[in-house]
Design a protein that fits this description.
globular; mainly alpha; 6 helices; about 190 residues; two-stranded antiparallel sheet
């Protein structure tokens, strides 16, 4: 998966919110690529709503991993500002896609934020070392995706997510984070 993670106009300072917005786009693409990969492996989703539920689980994982990855490079205040901006941008994207799939209705942002907050609390107890989520961390995402996708092939989905999809997700996430911050730092 190719990820555009360099700023077009160099020499212009970038705020944490701008970096978070660019990263939200990357994380949404990573989630989309992962859903497509699962479907190409024969794991079925039956509706756009179900696909978006899987997106939601993948985005919660990616936001928490991002929080762990940026922990050392930012103060607590900066990190909170960055992660909130990232979450809000993803919530906006989720809302827009949910409206496209299901038509106008409720504001889907709050439901996304509620799930995100619940998952972030769950992931907080799992190990993370050397820039990688630990086994329990990965297993939890695998179980969440399995529950979201339903009973068909359920015994294989978790393994697919843990062994294949998460390593594929980590590469563009790490690349995007590194390059967005590098090119933003060059601008400053």
């Amino acid at each position: 998966m190719r990820v555009k993670s360099r700023w077009k106009k160099r020499g212009k300072p970038r705020s944490l919110e701008e970096i978070a917005g660019a990263l939200a786009f990357i994380e949404w693409r990573i989630a989309g690529d992962t859903v497509l990969s699962l479907e190409n492996e024969g794991f079925e989703t039956v509706s756009n709503a179900q696909r978006l539920d899987v997106f939601q689980e993948l985005c919660a994982f990616l936001v928490h991993v991002t929080d762990r990855l940026v922990h050392a490079r930012m103060s607590d205040e900066e990190r909170q500002k960055f992660i909130v901006a990232l979450a809000l941008k993803l919530a906006d994207t989720y809302h827009d896609n949910r409206v496209d799939a299901e038509g106008s209705g409720p504001d889907y942002r709050q439901a996304f934020i509620d799930i995100l907050n619940a998952r972030l609390a769950d992931y907080a107890g799992f190990g993370f070392s050397d820039g990688e989520p630990g086994y329990a961390f990965k297993r939890y995402l695998g179980e969440r995706v399995t529950r979201t996708m339903g009973p068909k092939d359920s015994k294989w989905i978790c393994d697919q997510v843990m062994d294949i999809e998460i390593p594929k997700m980590m590469k563009p996430l790490n690349k995007g984070l590194k390059e967005l911050f590098e090119t933003a730092d060059e601008s400053a």
